[in-house]
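We modelled the chain as a single entity of 193 amino acids. Its sequence is:
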Amino acid sequence: VMGWIPSGVLVGSNPTGVGGFDPGDIEGYSIETVVQLDPVTGSISEPLCNGPFGALAPDGTLACITGEGSDAQIAVTVPEGSSTTIDTHGQYAGGVGFRDGSSTLVYTTASDATELCTRAYCQDLWSVQLGGQTVAPRELRSADSPNFGAVLLSDDTAVDLVTESAGSELALINLTTGQTTVITLADAILGVL
């Protein structure tokens, strides 16, 4: 069970990855098959995505991930059927979530070094306004570590965990302004629930 939505329950299967779950380890973990279960009738929908599931907004707007491992994109489809594709410029995308209903999409990308990222390994937190004429992702936070994950707390705030060889940092990120407030530094933080 992945969560409750107004029309029922989201149920996922065919997960990839072995062991625990780190929301920032988007290369190793994804849910390929997600369906809606109506608890009253017991009916199950067709899979929501033809690949890794991203997120489902309360209004039914759906985000699906394509091109994993090479050029990850996020296809956002509104209930009326129109869609927008976000080129993430990353090899992998995950940690997808909607805020402000479905007007903003927040996601994480991961890549080995590219022309856009000169570090050895890049993992970044992004937001993008939806519904306008142009889709322009905005970088909110970068990390050189594969152990990086952001968890949405509310429409305006995410909690972010960066674990580097020098230690760990737990911070709050304002998803509107990108302002980061460090909560604590530690030798190691295992994860954020």
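As a brief sanity check on the tokenised model: Residues 16 and 62 are 21 Å apart (CA to CA). The chain is about 0% helix and 55% strand.
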